[in-house]
Amino acid sequence: MTIRVLLADDQALLRSAFRVLVDSEPDMKVVGEASDGAEAVRLAGERCADVVLMDIRMPGTDGLAATRLISADPALTQVRVVILTTFEVDDYVVQSLRAGASGFLGKGAEPEELLNAIRIAHGGEALLSPAATKGLITRFLAQGDGDDGRDPARSDRLDTLTGREREVLVQVAGGHSNDEIAERLEVSPLTVKTHVNRAMTKLGARDRAQLVVIAYESGLVRPKRD
């Protein structure tokens, strides 16, 4: 299966560099380029993109607004957005995850990291590494606009989960892989995957990154303050 990638960045030079890198891989190809968020949203549908590499800061409709539009469009449910940012720990990244992005990557990442991010996002797995998850999520995600960032509506939705699904969700929020969770809970990786998929279905999450958001915003997991 060839992963169809859309590049969204207002800098033509960067888009060209990303295109060369992506097109050099046998399992992926660039299907379009956008210089702003509005064009990215349009092309995501027209070109049947699987993954959008989205710059966060663009003129007009920025990457954050574009991500919201893509995530809210029922016709684009197959599209995964990977935010590219100059600052890897940034309030914009938190907003991006809340808007529906599958994860984020710093523009200073190595080429293999970028290619791996595309594959991981396309597969619906955790794009956020354990280090990135803990470093970013625990600092920002649950701090929100309210007293503690807790979203009562999302908290109520957790009632649909079984006890084991809640346990798995806590582990996912910690940035752990299925194999790591399986070892921690003394079950098989396949069982973990089943619990993760069921939790995603019950909570309406697009991927594991969204499960992380829900876990923190519901108050199931709280950030550790330094």
UniProtKB/TrEMBL annotation:
Residues 154-219 form the HTH luxR-type domain. InterPro entries: CheY-like_superfamily (IPR011006), NreC/VraR/RcsB-like_REC (IPR058245), Sig_transdc_resp-reg_C-effctor (IPR016032), Sig_transdc_resp-reg_receiver (IPR001789), Tscrpt_reg_LuxR_C (IPR000792), WalR-like (IPR039420). GO terms for molecular function: DNA binding. GO terms for biological process: phosphorelay signal transduction system; regulation of DNA-templated transcription. Residues 4-122 form the Response regulatory domain. Keywords: DNA-binding, Phosphoprotein, Transcription, Transcription regulation. SUPFAM superfamilies: C-terminal effector domain of the bipartite response regulators, CheY-like. The modification 4-aspartylphosphate is found at D55. PANTHER family: TRANSCRIPTIONAL REGULATORY PROTEIN NARL-RELATED (PTHR43214:SF24), TWO-COMPONENT RESPONSE REGULATOR (PTHR43214). This is DNA-binding response regulator. It comes from Streptomyces colonosanans.
